[in-house]
Amino acid sequence: MTAAVAALVALGCVSAPDRPRSEGPGESETTATPEPDASGVGPDGTDTPEEFTTDIDSATSIAEAYWAAVFKDSGLRFRPVSQVIPYEREGEVDCGGQPLGLKNAAYCSAGDFIAYDVNWAFGAFRQIGDAFIFYLLGHEYAHAIQLRLGIQAQFTIQQELQADCMAGAYIGDMEKQKRLTLQEGDTEELAAGLESVGDAPGQPWFAEGSHGTAKQRTQAFANGYQDSLDPCNLT
Question: Are the beta carbons of 181 and 107 closer than 8 angstroms?
Answer without folding.
Answer: no
